[in-house]
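Example 3.
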Amino acid sequence: AQKITQTQPGMFVQEKEAVTLDCTYDTSDPSYGLFWYKQPSSGEMIFLIYQGSYDQQNATEGRYSLNFQKARKSANLVISASQLGDSAMYFCAMRALSRGGADGLTFGKGTHLIIQP
Amino acid sequence: NAGVTQTPKFRVLKTGQSMTLLCAQDMNHEYMYWYRQDPGMGLRLIHYSVGEGTTAKGEVPDGYNVSRLKKQNFLLGLESAAPSQTSVYFCATRGPSYNEQFFGPGTRLTVL
């Protein structure tokens, strides 16, 4: 079984500052993928970034980067130069990639990020 | 190209009533999923399907049934709704790649 822990229920950040959202995971699967999603107040799930457990480099997508530390089992999301539109819930999720287990993503409880002007 | 659509967007049921949520996708994906999201929680997997005619249980399957008679549609049924099933339900799909999961807009269900 997999488990995702997000220890920051809420965060307030000044506009234009960088933000780090914490995510730790637990799995016995040797091969897995890690996701970050954004959920604005309108409710849709917006994919931000993906990191495979065997990827050599940390994933980046525009202002988003994933600080992947495999030995620590952490996959923190970094948002550079935050904007007011970044205010939302952020979810870390995992998928085990080996066969035999249930497919689908395991989610953390999320972090509510509020960007202040 | 609509991606993933869910019908209905909102629904209010009384305890004991039944209903079916429809998920439709036009991406020709094999994999489809149903999740629920409760307040203050992340999404939890209810059931999933790895292809037409197949279904499997996820983390929280009790009280729900699913069917995948056509590749493009994945139905989630509540036979006898309970207040504990008040939630937002999300459908999702993916193709052969593990690094993707496309979500529908969600259905907000209230059971009184």
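The CA atoms of residues 27 and 42 of chain B lie 25 Å apart. Chain B has a mean pLDDT of 95.
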